[in-house]
Structures are given as structure tokens and as C-alpha cells.
Amino acid sequence: MKVNIDIDDKHTEPSITIQTNEWSEELEEIVALIKGKNGRRLFGIEADQTVLLDPKAIDFVYAEKRKVFACLGKKHVEIRMKLYEIEENLASYNFMRFSKSVIGNLNQIERFELSFNGNLCVYFESGNKEYITRKYVLPIKNRLNMGGKSDDNGRD
User: Fold this and answer.
1) Structural domains counted in the chain
2) Is 36 a domain residue?
3) CATH number for the domain harbouring residue 120
4) 3-state class of 37 per DSSP?
5) Which of 40-44, 61-65, 66-70 has the lowest mean pLDDT?
6) Each residue of 7-34: pLDDT tens digit?
7) What's the start-to-end Cα distance of the chain, in Å?
8) Mind listing the pLDDT tens digit for each residue in 95-133?
9) What is the dihedral of CA 42, 90, 128, 133, to 10 degrees?
10) Residue 45 falls inside a structural domain
11) Is residue 115 part of a domain?
């Protein structure tokens, strides 16, 4: 990707132009990041207290019995938001849909195992595991092939 920056007094406000031959998920994420759509903080409820959650520490977020929880290692913290809202907020942190009720952090994945029914079993660095249903396997594979496992700490 080529980046051009033109600093000149003739410009009254910042303007960004992206030139490409086709729309992609990567472009969608870049636009969302630039517009600041994913800048909302994520809060959880733990022991009747509100806690700020670091998206990089979350393995996955899941819905169960009409409630939504974030799994951080061995802790499960309730989040009082809809799963689709959390998915939008965490997209820039490399989270993707694993199933109808689970959103996973691609940066925390350690390894995969193929299940007998075509689903993938995902093992996270924390030791947790979750399943990716067949419907979501290809989009996740494509994202990982694009370089989906990278973060600010230099891990690749």
C-alpha cells in the first residue's frame, strides 16, 4: 500500500483519498478507523462494578441466555451491549464473527483443529477454546491470509 501526505497551507482541512480497483474488508476497516467509528470504550460489569476492558486482552465475546460476556483468560465479564454492537466496536481490533453467538479475537489465536463436522476448534493463547462454524471459516481464513495476526507489540 502506498501512502501520500501533502502538507501545504492551501489545505483548509484534512482530506483523504484512497485509490483502488475494488472495495475490500480492509478498506472498510480503514474508513471506519479514520472516521472514528470504533473509538468507543468497552465496559464490563464485574461484582456490581463497572470495569474498563482492554480489547487486546479479550479472547472472545459470546452471548448466552440473553446476556453477553467477554472471556478474558479465566474471567467471564458481562457486557451490557448487543453482540452486533460489540462486533462493530471491536472490528478494528481484529475481531471477527465465529458463529451466530461468538465474536473472536484473531490476535489471540494460538492454533486451530479441524472438527469432524467441518467446524474449526480455535485454541487461544490463554488456553480457552471456541468453535468457528462452517459459515465463518472462509472469511476468517481470508483475513488471516491477508495478515490478520499483527498488533502494536510487534507479534506476528
Assistant:
1) 1
2) yes
3) 2.40.50.1020
4) coil
5) 40-44
6) 888 888 888 888 888 888 777 777 767 7
7) 19
8) 999 999 999 999 999 998 987 787 889 999 999 999 999
9) 140
10) yes
11) yes
